[in-house]
């Protein structure tokens, strides 16, 4: 039976760095962000459900979802963010479950989800691995990566649970405030403790 590990972290803390490293070690990754894009793609039931709640103005002229516009709407209004999560979550959860089932022959499967706790996906996993960094580094990385103002970056950080809470709920924490090599060393240390190989 597969061991399923939830990989999470605050936005811009380095979760993708760890996810990519684990994948390079031959561990299959179920990527919740990728799944979200799939279920919100043009001509899907997921996108239809979002349009029903938010109107056709969130679509681009080619019928694709205008992610930037939707992001501006939901990250500046917590109720609209909750509405979006309620609307799209059943589609995401269904696809996550399907992908995990398809990987059942692997001893270790990683569910990569930035909102693992916020959306209750920790119920789908056996253990939670959390990637953390200092608040200042997180803010600087997010502003630089997404070309956001300090206000916009703080809105997105505040839309997720505080890093400190996630750390308390996680089974294992990787600290990613230093070099990539130091982060990788911690991941290897965690991997060596897994009793699945």
Automatic annotation (TrEMBL):
It is found in: Cytoplasm. It comes from the Bacteria. It catalyses: 3'-dephospho-CoA + ATP = ADP + CoA + H(+). One of its GO terms (cellular component) is cytoplasm. Signal peptide: none annotated. The keyword Nucleotide-binding applies. Pfam families: CoaE. Its EC number is 2.7.1.24. Keywords: ATP-binding, Coenzyme A biosynthesis, Cytoplasm, Kinase, Nucleotide-binding, Transferase. Gene3D superfamilies: P-loop containing nucleotide triphosphate hydrolases. Pathway: Cofactor biosynthesis; coenzyme A biosynthesis; CoA from (R)-pantothenate: step 5/5. GO terms for biological process: coenzyme A biosynthetic process. One of its GO terms (molecular function) is dephospho-CoA kinase activity. Catalyzes the phosphorylation of the 3'-hydroxyl group of dephosphocoenzyme A to form coenzyme A. Belongs to the CoaE family. This is Dephospho-CoA kinase. It comes from Lentilactobacillus senioris DSM 24302 = JCM 17472. The gene is coaE.
């Amino acid at each position: 039976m597969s061991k399923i590990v939830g990989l999470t972290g605050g936005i811009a803390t380095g979760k993708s760095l760890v996810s990519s490293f684990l994948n390079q070690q031959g561990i299959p990754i179920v990527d919740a962000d990728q799944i979200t894009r799939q279920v919100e793609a043009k001509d899907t039931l997921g996108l239809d459900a979002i349009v029903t709640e938010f109107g056709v103005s969130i679509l681009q002229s080619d019928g694709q979802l205008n992610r930037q516009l939707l992001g501006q709407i939901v990250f500046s209004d917590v109720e609209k963010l909750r509405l979006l999560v309620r609307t799209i979550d059943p589609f995401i959860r269904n696809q996550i479950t399907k992908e995990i089932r398809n990987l059942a022959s692997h001893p270790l499967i990683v569910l990569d989800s930035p909102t693992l706790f916020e959306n209750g996906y920790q119920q789908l996993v056996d253990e939670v691995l959390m990637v953390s960094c200092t608040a200042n580094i997180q803010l600087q990385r997010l502003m630089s990566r997404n070309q956001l103002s300090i206000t916009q970056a703080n809105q997105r950080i505040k839309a997720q649970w505080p890093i400190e809470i996630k750390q308390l709920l996680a089974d294992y924490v990787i600290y990613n405030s230093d070099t990539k090599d130091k982060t990788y060393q911690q991941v290897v240390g965690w991997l060596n403790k897994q009793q699945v190989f």
